[in-house]
Amino acid sequence: MSEFGIVFALLGAATAVLLAGAGSAIGVGIAGQAAAGVVTEDPSKFAKVLIMQLLPGTQGLYGLLVGFITLSKIGLLGGKVAEVDIATGLLILAACLPVGIVGLISGKSQGKTSAAAIGIVAKKPDQFGKAMLFPAMVETYAILALLISFLAVNAIQV
Predict the structure, then answer these.
(1) How do residues 10-66 score in pLDDT, each as one tens digit?
(2) 139 contacts: CB under 8 Å, gap ≥ 6
(3) Closest residue by Cα to residue 18 from 140, 141, 101
(4) Which residue from 20, 21, 22, 31 is spatially nearest to 110, judged by alpha carbons?
């Protein structure tokens, strides 16, 4: 029956990576559309809008980090696969959900906020620092989800 435990643990790692990565892809795409419009009008703003576009990409990195930690925890990256019972596998799956779900939602939301901030930079490039604060506020919740998933996965005894 330990095969089911490892399946749930792998499902947790996959969920963290897939959902957070999807959120980042959506967010970066939304911000990229806005950035492309600005650069079409004024190519000198490329660096500023690129930074804004990259911000929603962090959620995918957070999901990937939790995925790597999970794979390492169950031994898939260390050479010897651990014996994971069903309850432990489900705990690992549950521990991976925060970064996945919050990453999906915050990545998309940060993309929208970044697009709005790109609009600020398009009209008032000197307000770049203030514009950065809006998408950075969304990042706070992605970091909190990363923290809880990281702590939860590491607290589980395999």
Answers:
(1) 999 999 999 999 999 999 999 999 999 999 999 999 999 999 999 999 999 999 999
(2) 55, 58, 106, 110
(3) 101
(4) 31
